[in-house]
Amino acid sequence: MTESTPLHPGLLLVLSAPSGAGKTTLAHRLMRELSSTIFSVSVTTRRPRGKEQEGVDYHFVDVATFQQKIERGEFVEWAEVHGHFYGSPQSVVEEARARRGTAIFDIDVQGGQAIKRKHPDAVLVFVLPPSMEELERRLRDRKTDSDETIRRRMLAARSEIERGVASYDYVIVNDDIERAFQELRSVVVAERCRRGRVDLSMMKLEKTASEPGR
Ligand SMILES: Nc1nc2c(ncn2[C@@H]2O[C@H](COP(=O)(O)OP(=O)(O)O)[C@@H](O)[C@H]2O)c(=O)[nH]1
Ligand SMILES: Nc1ncnc2c1ncn2[C@@H]1O[C@H](COP(=O)(O)OP(=O)(O)O)[C@@H](O)[C@H]1O
């Protein structure tokens, strides 16, 4: 399906969720099924996990390199999460604006709130698991985390959910992946059409005016 010519100045879409709720699954599907999407590959000091690849899932760096990037202003936001540093590249924001595309940030609530402070037109979407039991089941079934890591993530999940639901623009419950994806897609499509975002200078109205006598 084709989409309309973008008349908006690019969409900054933040997806957050407690670890294991399914935001990465949803973000990757948005990338596949919507045009003009740019996935923000974060920079992290944590080690690669499972089949993760450099430059695809994350840019994996050491702490000294991460600090250099902070000093050079290369992050639109950065934070410490579960004992590691994570940062979102400023270049992704610039690319989304230049291409009038949709940048997808798969980051935590503090990161989403920081992007919203800098860019009030950013759209924040929080993904909820159907229950805490199901969240733990998904983390275990993923088989990428140790028992200790899962325990830490489950502890962090409660406050992440409270802060996300209280401050985000949209909340989507990921019980059935198909329904959750269709809801997320609807949010993106609606936000791309939002009146406040339309930039009429793109239409060159003055050149198309054809009133009688002109
Ligand atoms: N603030 C911020 N958080 C990030 C960034 N990248 C990833 N995160 C968050 O860091 C947390 C841990 O991510 P990760 O280690 O990949 O584990 P996951 O939760 O299983 O995806 C998740 O809540 C991510 O959303 C980033 O660039 N900035
Ligand atoms: N609606 C769903 N129903 C069942 N399993 C799901 C659903 N959404 C995602 N999953 C699975 O749950 C696990 C965690 O999803 P993932 O996208 O890695 O979460 P996050 O990025 O939020 O940590 C993965 O194994 C994924 O395949």
UniProtKB/TrEMBL annotation:
Predominant location category: cytoplasm
Binding site for ATP: A17, P18, S19, G20, A21, G22, K23, T24
Top-level taxon of origin: Bacteria
GO CC term, one of those recorded: cytosol
A Pfam family recorded for this sequence: Guanylate_kin
Guanylate kinase-like domain span: 10-189
Enzyme Commission number: 2.7.4.8
PROSITE patterns named among the record's database cross-references: GUANYLATE_KINASE_1, GUANYLATE_KINASE_2
Subcellular localization: Cytoplasm
Enzyme category, top tier: transferase
Matches recorded under InterPro entries: GK/Ca_channel_bsu, Guanylate_kin-like_dom, Guanylate_kinase, Guanylate_kinase_CS, P-loop_NTPase
Entry's transmembrane regions: none
Catalytic activity field: GMP + ATP = GDP + ADP
Keyword Chloroplast assigned: no
GO molecular function, one term: ATP binding
UniProtKB keywords: ATP-binding, Cytoplasm, Kinase, Nucleotide-binding, Transferase
Family: Belongs to the guanylate kinase family.
Function (record text): Essential for recycling GMP and indirectly, cGMP.
Protein name: Guanylate kinase
Species this chain originates from: Hyalangium minutum
Gene: gmk
